């Protein structure tokens, strides 16, 4: 069974996130976090949060080694895709 983690409310496009996710896909958790720490993009911080959450879920829920590999298969399309502000919230801002 795969370990899952997601982030909502990110206002970055899926194309921009895909570049960062492809860079850390298949690496160990510590190595991925090191790469993301020094990557000069604000969206790298969001990807790092999801990687940390997935490692914590692996340790607590699945009793796995949290320092294992990161696969990030569906990350840019599902887990990190942002829908932005919905129509209800945008309607509240109008005068």
Helices and strands in order:
Elements: H1 14-24, H2 29-37, H3 42-60, H4 75-79, H5 87-93
Question: What this model shows, in words?
Answer:
With 95 residues, the protein is mostly helical. The protein has a domain at 14-73: Ribosomal protein L22/L17 (Ribosomal Protein L22, Chain A), CATH 3.90.470.10. It is 54% helix and 0% strand. It is built from 5 helices and no strands. Helix 2 (29-37) runs antiparallel to helix 3 (42-60). Residues 76-82 have low confidence and may be disordered.
Descriptors for this entry?
Ribosomal Protein L22, Chain A; single chain; 95 residues; mainly alpha
What is the structure about, briefly put?
The protein is mainly alpha-helical. The protein has helices at residues 14-24, 29-37, 42-60, 75-79, 87-93. It has a domain at 14-73: Ribosomal protein L22/L17 (Ribosomal Protein L22, Chain A, Alpha-Beta Complex).
């Amino acid at each position: 069974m795969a370990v899952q983690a997601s982030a909502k409310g990110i206002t970055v496009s899926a194309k921009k996130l895909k570049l960062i996710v492809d860079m850390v896909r298949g690496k160990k958790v510590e190595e991925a976090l090191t790469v993301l720490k020094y990557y000069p993009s604000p969206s790298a911080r969001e990807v790092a949060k999801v990687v940390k959450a997935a490692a914590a879920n692996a340790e607590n829920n699945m009793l796995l080694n949290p320092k294992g590999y990161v696969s990030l298969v569906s990350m840019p399309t599902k887990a990190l895709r942002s829908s932005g502000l919905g129509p209800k919230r945008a309607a509240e801002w109008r005068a």
